[in-house]
Specification:
Chain lengths: 198, 107
């Protein structure tokens, strides 16, 4: 317990220096500190809990191997999140064939939700399972780049500059991909909502 | 219902329901065990040597195949050294005779 408190008090830079000096156990406080954030990020892109865990493990593995390349001029968290976003993007690209084939096969609950929305489009966002499933279904249909952009830009509400720093894409490329992603999203929505709702 | 309002509402729903940040039980321990096992494996000299040898297999085979292909392409006459060897032998014999002659002359 005392050891945990000491580890908590140490900064990221101090812990990393210790790891690089040959004490790999100093990496554990970093894993404890940032794993919740990584799990939150990974769960945006993967549904199965086993996949989420694999993503986070891969992120830590990459970070541990490349720890010497962390320069320390930017916070460790930024560097970690950049690695996490890259790993999630790789995961999306590797699993793009597993995306659901037909977005129009929506459940009865989702159809009901769409009907309720058609009746009252200005109502507050709700926490119903149907709405969450519909969002997930739509995101699953997007290409990996579009899904990443929509998640970062629309759902996490990040700026273009932040997305550029996280993904390593240039600012104009992020803007182009955001434009394409929104068009792709509209196309998917059109298929989901069908003509009868529009 | 417009597409834009549907889009906005779904995005708002997604924003309002961020995924859980719950970490599975003993996840840190598992990650550390994996990382430490991996780093120990990476430091083992025998494993390093085995990996290096396995990595060298493909380039060595490719180099051998290239040399074989190149040797097949070469003209056979360039490999026929019998004429050259004959000349060399003759020159060596004649030189030795001349050398003997000059030694005799000096006497």
């Amino acid at each position: 317990m005392a050891l945990d408190n000491v580890s908590q008090a140490k900064s990221d830079a101090e812990l990393i220096t210790e790891v690089l000096k040959g004490n790999p156990a100093s990496f554990e406080p970093l894993v404890e500190r940032y794993s919740p954030r990584l799990f939150g990020t990974a769960r945006r892109y993967a549904r199965r809990e086993s996949e989420v865990e694999d993503i986070v493990q891969e992120v830590w593995s990459k970070v541990f191997q490349k720890l010497a390349s962390w320069r320390g001029d930017a916070p460790f968290e930024h560097w970690l999140m950049r690695t996490a976003v890259h790993t999630c993007y790789d995961f999306l690209r590797d699993h793009k064939r597993n995306r659901e084939d037909n977005v129009t096969d929506i459940s009865r609950e989702e159809e009901d939700w769409l009907e309720r929305h058609a009746a009252a489009p200005d109502s507050e966002p709700d926490n119903s399972q149907a709405a969450k499933q519909l969002v997930q279904r739509l995101l699953d249909q997007l290409s990996p780049a579009s899904r990443l952009i929509i998640t970062l830009l629309e759902i996490e509400d990040r700026t273009v500059k932040e997305i550029s720093a996280l993904t390593g894409w240039s600012v104009p490329l992020v803007k182009v991909r955001a434009f394409r992603a929104r068009a792709e999203m509209r196309k998917c929505l059109k298929r989901v909502a069908k003509d009868k709702y529009l | 219902m417009s597409l834009e309002s549907l889009n906005q509402r779904l995005v708002a729903t997604a924003r309002a329901n961020p995924p859980s940040e719950e970490v599975p039980y003993a996840f840190e321990k598992r990650v550390m065990a994996r990382l430490l096992a991996g780093s120990a494996r990476a430091l083992d000299p025998w494993i390093q040597l085995t990996r290096g040898l396995w990595r060298a297999v493909v380039p060595c085979c490719a180099t051998a195949a290239l040399i074989i292909a190149w040797s097949w392409q070469m003209e056979p006459s360039r490999f026929d050294t019998s004429a050259g060897a004959e000349d060399d032998l003759e020159v060596a014999v004649v030189d030795s005779i001349d050398l003997n002659d000059s030694v005799e002359d000096s006497w």
